[in-house]
Amino acid sequence: MRTAVILLLLVGASGSATDAVRSRDAEIRAALPPDGQALTEAGRQKIEGIVSRIVDTRAILESALEKRWTQMTEVQRRRLREAFEHRFRVSGTAHLDTWRKTRIDYLPEERKGELVRVPTRIAAEGEESDVTYVLRDGAAGWRIVDIVVDDVSTVENYRASFARVISREGVEALIDRLNRGADAKRKKE
After folding, report:
1. Which of 12, 17, 113, 171 has CA atoms 20 to 30 A from the CA of 138?
2. pTM, two decimal places
């Protein structure tokens, strides 16, 4: 375990966007209990923190909500961000058993202005998917601002679904749905 931590620090120290994603993935694998051993609540919380630490939830929300974000009060923005982050954390740890058996191939980075795309090919349970992490470097280091799965942007998906909920029911309904969705996923586990 000690060797894994040292390796993570060395990998993270090189500074590329790919290294940041690799480091996160390695840290998740290292935090998983041995095969067949149940994950404790403390272990789940640790992994949720690892999964979400590199994700810029505010940037994702701002991109997904566009001008609606600026029209919200600061209290609404904070509550929405908390609900979104909670849902993201819970969703990100929904299939932890597959992490042990997942193969991840990291492909060459693609730079587009201030954004860097880290394409990966993920093989899990006999299926392959292309997952591209879109990152931006800033004061907090490399942060994910979008995840594109098989050519479908999560930000664009959020944009469509969030707009639909806000238009019909308002921001408070979106916050409530995100919280209820996270709670429902947690109960299934």
Report:
1. 171
2. 0.84
